[in-house]
Specification:
Beta-lactamase; 499 residues; Lipocalin; eight-stranded antiparallel β-barrel; 2 domains
Length: 499
């Protein structure tokens, strides 16, 4: 008996030596590598990184390309990228923890946690709940210029949106809205007696070992291993400045690496538990992943949820929920100047993928995620790079057509109703604040928020801003019955002229 033990031990050891490599090859990791190499090349992305989780294990994690086209430093699994709106699930994750703690309910009135919050419609204002503001169903359209590049604080932005009229009926239409997620983050901080950042750091980042994750560009840019944002200028790809969005932080300010995101993915696939530690109840993870608001899959959404493969699209709590080739996906993308991100979960298959990229406006992360999901689930192969690129070109063509139509409707050889000096003055709106019209030589100029731009005459009393970020907007002045300029319309808001 004692003589046979060494032989038995040796036999088991031999089996383990051969079984372990076999298990390592269970998933097509070379195929994942090929998918990423193809995606980076197709989309001309300077740098990217991916992590794939399957059955509670990281089966693939790798960086591609460069952090910065100038320095040529390589992307690694620890390179920090801005993850944009994939931040939103961290907000609802924090809310879920407070619900578990008995300090918040999904259906609490928002003003229970943010006393100064209001909506412009009386009925909506009385009924609005925490669930409403994190499912994009308040009736407010984006109004992103209230925060994007603006000088206003979080409280000022939340107060301002309360004076903006709703564009759709309350709870009738999905309208993506960042300021509502800012409000949810403020609610988390108020309820926790700290801030959204402090609570998320203590209850999510630290337990998950997200060591390089941060909440501000001021931290991310100092990281030893961080990506630089890039943009395409014709055929050239060049660096661009980081966009600081501290004033709307909970809507999209987290910066992280794919290694940081690996345990975040595991947390969701394990219904709130990682390495034996329960952070969120299974009930509330399921609530986050449950459809809450139906989305019409049209326009820009078709880039991310191809209608050929998706027949149902909804929003959960900080996540998009859609069917895809017979599977339920829980996913979200992220976009901020020079960065793109995508996280895709296939809960029943215990599969999760995160792809981060440092190129403005690219659909590379979504295409790569779909290709990886197809590969690992054994689904029919499709070239998502080419397919999504074609959809993007069609959408761009439609946008260009709209701009050309507006230009075609321009009435030539017209002039303003009044001399330019009559338009000069201060114009105000309760939500959007003050807009200043001045004379810059022989040209009108607009000053609003942090924007200062000349106005080019379009026709009659309509002018076009020359600031690149406002090219889709127009400024239309209004005159009273007495012929005096009494207001202007800008961004769908009517500003009244101060007397």
């Amino acid at each position: 008996m004692t003589q046979k033990l060494p032989k038995l031990f040796f036999s088991l050891l031999v089996c383990l030596v051969f079984v372990t490599p076999a298990l390592a090859q269970k998933w097509d990791t070379p195929g994942i590598d090929t998918v990423m190499q193809d995606a980076v090349k197709f989309w001309q992305t300077p740098g990217a990184a991916i992590v794939v989780v399957k059955d509670d294990q990281v089966i693939f994690i790798k960086g591609y390309g460069v952090r910065d086209v100038k320095t040529k430093e390589a992307v690694t699994p620890d390179t920090v990228f801005a993850i944009g709106s994939t931040t939103k699930a961290f907000v609802t994750g924090a809310m879920a923890m407070l619900v578990d703690d008995g300090k918040m309910s999904w259906d609490d009135p928002v003003r229970k946690h943010v006393g100064y919050f209001r909506l412009g419609d009386p009925l909506a204002n009385e009924a609005v709940t925490m669930r409403d503001i994190v499912t994009h169903r308040t009736g407010l359209v984006r109004h992103d210029l209230l925060w994007y590049g603006s000088p206003w604080s979080r409280e000022e932005i939340v107060r301002k949106i309360g004076f903006v009229p709703l564009s759709y009926g309350f709870r009738t239409t999905f309208q993506y809205q960042n300021i509502m997620f800012l409000t949810a983050g403020v609610a988390v901080g108020n309820t926790a007696g700290s801030s959204w950042e402090e609570f998320t750091q203590r209850r999510i980042f630290d337990p998950l070992g997200m060591k390089s994750a941060s909440f501000s560009t001021s931290v991310a840019e100092k990281a030893a291993d961080h990506a630089t944002p890039h943009q395409k200028r014709g055929a050239t790809i060049d660096t661009m400045p980081w966009r600081n969005i501290d004033n709307v932080g909970p809507a999209g300010s987290i910066n992280a690496s794919v290694r940081d995101l690996s345990n975040w993915i595991r947390l969701h696939l394990n219904e709130g538990e990682v390495d034996g530690k329960r952070l969120i109840s299974a009930e509330n993870v399921r609530e986050m992943h449950m459809p809450q608001m139906v989305i019409r899959n049209e326009g820009r959404w078709q880039l991310f949820f191809p209608p050929t493969e998706t027949s149902q699209l909804s929003y959960g709590l900080g996540w998009f929920i859609n069917d895809y080739r017979g599977h339920k996906l829980v996913m979200h993308g992220g976009t901020i100047d020079g960065f793109r991100a995508s996280i895709v979960l296939v809960p029943k298959a215990k599969l999760g993928v995160a792809v981060l990229a440092n190129l403005n406006g690219t659909q590379m992360p979504e295409a790569a995620c779909y290709n990886v999901v197809d590969l690992l689930l054994g689904l029919p192969k499709k070239d998502w790079n080419a397919s999504i690129s074609e959809n993007a070109k069609q959408l761009e063509a439609e946008t260009s057509k709209a701009a050309l139509t507006r230009l075609g409707n321009r009435k030539k050889d017209t002039k303003p109703s009044r001399e330019l000096a009559a338009y000069v003055g201060a114009y105000e709106d309760a939500g959007y604040g003050k807009a200043e019209i001045s004379l810059d030589g022989e040209t009108l100029a607009l000053g609003w928020s942090s924007f200062k731009t000349k106005l080019q005459h379009f026709h009659f009393d309509t002018f076009s801003p020359m600031e690149p970020r406002l090219l889709t907007e127009q400024v239309q002045f209004t005159l009273g019955a007495d012929g005096e300029v009494n207001g202007l319309d800008f961004q769908g808001i009517h500003f009244k002229k101060k007397k």
